[in-house]
Structures are given as C-alpha cells and as structure tokens.
Specification:
single chain; 287 residues; mainly alpha; 11 helices
C-alpha cells in the first residue's frame, strides 16, 4: 500500500512537471515564431496590425466617452494593479505558513516584470504613431506589459482558488480571468498604444514565465507546492464548533422514557431501589 501511494504521488509530480515544462516550451516556440514575423515585418501580419489599430483609432476619435471608459479599464488592469494583487496574495500566504507557495507567487510577479523589460529592450519595436493620439504610453511596444502582467496575475489567482472551490466555482473563475485578460489586452489596441501582435506576444511571454517558474520550483523543492496547497486548505477550511447554551433553568423532571431508557428499564442496585424516595402515585414496593 505504501509503495502504491508513493508511486502514485511520484507519477502525479512527474505529470505536473511535464505539463509545466510543455507549457513553457510551447509558448516559447510560438513566441519565437511571432518575434521572427514581427522583426521581419511580415506583410500579412503588418497589414493586420495596421488595419485593426487604424479602425479602432478612428472610432475612438469620434466617441470620447467610449474612449474614456476604455482608458479607465486599461488603467484599472495596469501592471501596477496586477503585481499589487500578487504581492498581497504572496504576503497572505507567507503569514499563514505557506512559504514555498508565497515564493512561487512572488517569483511569478518579479520574473514576469524582469522578462517583460528584457524582451522590450531586446526587440525595441515602435508603438503606433498618430498625429492625434487618444492615449500615450512610453517604452518599446513588443511585448505588451499590460497583457503579460494581467495574464500572469489572473492565472496565478485562478491557481490559488482551484482547490478551494467546486466545479462551478472553477468555471466561474476561469471565465472571469479570461474575460479580464482579453479585455485588458483589447483596451491597449483600442487606445492605439499597442499593435495586436504586441498583445499576443504578451500572452505568450506570460505562458513562458508561468510554466518555467513553476517547473523550476518543482525541481528545486519536489512536492513543496502540493504540501503548501494542503496547508492552505487546512488553514482556511470552515471550523465547526459546539456551542453550549446555559439557560439557567432547572432540569425538567424525568419522563418514563428517561427512567427506563430507550432500550428498556434501567437496572439499579437493589439498595438504591429500596432507599429511593417514593414519588406521588407510585406505590412503594417491598424489598
């Protein structure tokens, strides 16, 4: 039995490690292909980027209220907000004793931030340029920092909730996270500060960070993440306490059922029966 459990646990760890490694490698391959197309100015991709950004910019110029709402959504889902959420989650996990899980969350935020700027400086892609822009953003364009940070943060938060909720909760969390990631990425294109390929590159870069950081921690501390997940589940599970209410009233007189009990008459020592005071209406029997 012990051997079977160990083998099962080892197999689960291997599957998890392979899954995370595959995620990182697949996203890295797709990101590399996209980077080649971006730097090589592949005509179909360049035409797609120009068309989307141009149409959305024209609409934004003619609808200032709509543009202000999109700008608000973009600011709410900014990189500072997403990394602050991860920082709060990491601090809470650290306080309840899930130190490896807290380090995993913090590493996702820090590695994502570093990778974002390393990739931006490596490609130095220019942002869309307009004579009448509706929004402004600094730094290189590829990949999108908003798209990358939101994808990492939402994926981490869903991962933390995954074992705390049932199937409906998991579905709802995935839908909310996907909607948030897609919306934030779309706002950057709608405001004319990123090309669509920048947003796609940010999502792929987020997949690289998520898979690589998780795989490294699993190799460095095998089984530690799973133990911390169980620790979080135990620390946050609902506690059921027995509440004793004192009414200050005298106990009720015993009923015939109380005297005899559910399984028949109670047996008492003969001396107790003889010395027991007689109740009204009950004849005293001779010993």
């Amino acid at each position: 039995m012990h051997l079977t459990n160990s083998t099962t646990l080892l197999t689960a760890r291997n599957r998890s490690l392979l899954r995370d490694t595959a995620l990182a490698l697949c996203c890295a391959a797709l990101f590399g292909l996209l980077a080649v197309l971006v730097t090589g100015r592949w005509r179909p991709l360049a035409s797609f980027d120009q068309e989307w950004v141009g149409d959305l910019h024209t609409y934004a110029r003619g609808h200032p209220i709509w543009t202000a709402a999109v700008q608000t959504l973009s600011d709410i889902g900014g990189t500072v907000t997403m990394r602050a959420l991860l920082g709060i989650a990491a601090g809470w996990l650290w306080l309840i004793g899930a130190r490896v899980l807290a380090g995993w969350v913090a590493a996702q935020a820090l590695v994502g931030w570093g990778a974002q700027w390393a990739l931006k400086l490596a490609f130095e892609r220019g942002r869309p340029s307009f004579t009448d822009p509706v929004s402004h953003a600094g730094g290189p364009a590829f990949p999108s920092g908003h798209a990358m940070a939101s994808a990492i943060a939402c994926a981490v938060l869903v991962g933390l909730l995954w074992y705390r909720v049932r199937r409906r909760g998991r579905t709802a969390a995935c839908v909310v996270a996907a909607t948030a990631v897609l919306t934030i990425g779309w706002t950057r294109v709608a405001l004319g500060v990123h090309w669509p390929s920048d947003v796609l590159g940010g999502w792929l870069a987020a997949g690289i960070v998520l898979g690589a950081v998780t795989a490294v921690i699993q190799v460095w501390r095998p089984g530690a993440l799973a133990r911390d997940v169980r620790r979080v589940n135990w620390r946050t599970r609902p506690r059921v306490q027995r509440v004793v209410v004192s009414t200050g009233q005298a106990p009720h007189p015993a009923t015939p059922l109380d005297e005899d009990g559910p399984n028949g008459p109670r047996e008492e020592p003969l001396g107790d029966q003889a010395d027991r005071p007689r109740r009204p209406g009950h004849p005293r029997t001779a010993p």
